[in-house]
Write a structure and sequence with these properties.
There is one protein chain. By secondary structure, the protein is of the alpha+beta class. It has one domain (4-102): Orthogonal Bundle (Arc Repressor Mutant, subunit A), CATH 1.10.10.10. The protein contains 4 helices and 3 strands, in the order αβααββα. The chain has helices spanning 4-19, 26-36, 45-57, 81-105; strands at residues 24-25, 61-67, 73-79. It has a 3-stranded antiparallel beta sheet with strand order 1-3-2. The longest helix is centred in the last third of the chain and has 25 residues, at 81-105. The two termini are 32 Å apart.
Length: 112
């Protein structure tokens, strides 16, 4: 199980990474995260939408309502240039953290 702290820290970069591939809407984002994590990460509407609202207030994303195929309109989110910059920074940080975790999770070599 993923801790709440780790979940909270990873939510924003995951959303930005998804939106860097193109516009998307809430339910689809939730499903993509669930699928890519093999069900290990399950977000709820109640968790996701406040994060999306905050990211929009921070100008990392924008949104618009779009009716698809004559159906009910969906709230689509788009990454902004500021969001792309934030994603680059976040990914760089996460890569450094991952490298450290891999290093420290390996058994110590005899000559260390």
């Amino acid at each position: 199980m993923i801790s709440k702290t780790l979940m909270a820290a990873s939510t924003r970069p995951i959303i930005l990474a998804i939106l860097s591939r193109g516009k998307d809407y809430g339910y689809s984002i939730i499903q993509k995260v669930k699928n890519i994590s093999g069900g290990g990460i399950e977000w709820s509407d109640g968790m996701l939408y406040p994060v999306l609202q905050r990211m929009e207030m921070d100008r990392l994303i924008t949104s618009e309502w779009i009716a698809v195929d004559g159906g009910r309109p969906r709230h689509y989110y788009h990454i902004t240039d500021l969001g792309r910059q934030a994603l680059e920074t976040e990914l760089s940080g996460w890569q450094k953290i991952l490298q450290a975790m891999i290093h420290f999770s390996q058994p110590l070599l005899a000559d260390e």
